[in-house]
From TrEMBL:
UniProt keywords, alphabetically: Acyltransferase, Transferase
The name this protein goes by in its record: GNAT family N-acetyltransferase
Residue ranges occupied by any N-acetyltransferase domain in the UniProt entry: 3-116
A Pfam family per the record: Acetyltransf_1
Organism of origin: Neobacillus driksii
Length: 116
């Protein structure tokens, strides 16, 4: 299930975000987490089963018509089990009136999720 990011999950979130190719540098990673904590239009969600095993970060567009997935990451030991697709579906279910879009980094994965 998706849960909203809280500061208490910072280390877990940073660990999961570090699997994104664009977030390898520690300073960049810290900047990204700070953006999710301070920017009103950015939301970070963690995926919890027994443990937290994934995250999805989204930018809520001002016109309330779409959500752009900025980051999506799954713990390597839980990959290829449909976790990423379940996160995208849960986000879509949470915001049924909004279209799900992707940036250049997340588009290849989001396209596989068949959100049409």
């Amino acid at each position: 299930m998706l849960i909203r990011y809280k500061k208490t999950f910072e280390k877990i979130a940073m660990g999961l975000l570090s699997f994104m190719p664009t977030e390898k540098d520690l300073k960049k990673l810290q900047f990204t987490i700070k953006e999710y904590e301070t920017e009103e239009n950015l939301q970070l969600f963690l995926w919890k089963e027994e443990d937290i095993i994934g995250l999805i970060g989204a930018q809520m567009n001002d016109d309330d018509s779409s959500i752009m997935i900025q980051h999506i990451s799954v713990n390597p030991s839980h990959r290829y089990q449909g976790v990423g697709k379940r996160m995208v579906k849960a986000l879509k279910d949470m915001y049924p009136d909004r279209a799900i879009t992707a940036n250049n980094n997340t588009a290849p994965f989001v396209e596989k999720c068949d959100l049409c």
